[in-house]
Amino acid sequence: MKKGIHPEYREVVFWDTSSDTKFISRSTSNTKETIKMENGKEYPVIKVEVSSASHPFFTGKKLFVDTAGRVEKFKNKYQKKA
């Protein structure tokens, strides 16, 4: 492999904001935010809305989140006019 053309592969914290779960993994994504974990080390943090800690497939819970009212907007736009 050529040197200097590959992004840095480093440990980062993925923070599931919907369930407030944090886990350490590795990624090449760049971020300016950092967080200090329980082990005392400081890691770059990547915020995600869905992970295995909050996804219905993994949790077994049925959860419907409509953050922007998209369903209502769709129904209002395409409902039959009487």
From TrEMBL:
Entries under InterPro entries matching the protein: Ribosomal_bL28/bL31-like_sf, Ribosomal_bL31, Ribosomal_bL31_B, Ribosomal_bL31_sf
Record has Ribosomal protein as a keyword: yes
Superkingdom, taxonomy of origin: Bacteria
One term of GO molecular function: structural constituent of ribosome
Pfam families, per database record: Ribosomal_L31
Alphabetically ordered keywords of this record: Ribonucleoprotein, Ribosomal protein
Any one Gene Ontology BP term: translation
Gene Ontology cellular-component annotations: ribonucleoprotein complex; ribosome
Keyword Ribosomal protein: yes
Family, similarity comment: Belongs to the bacterial ribosomal protein bL31 family. Type B subfamily.
Quaternary structure note: Part of the 50S ribosomal subunit.
Identification of the protein by name: Large ribosomal subunit protein bL31B
Source organism per UniProt: Chryseolinea serpens
Lineage: Bacteria, Pseudomonadati, Bacteroidota, Cytophagia, Cytophagales
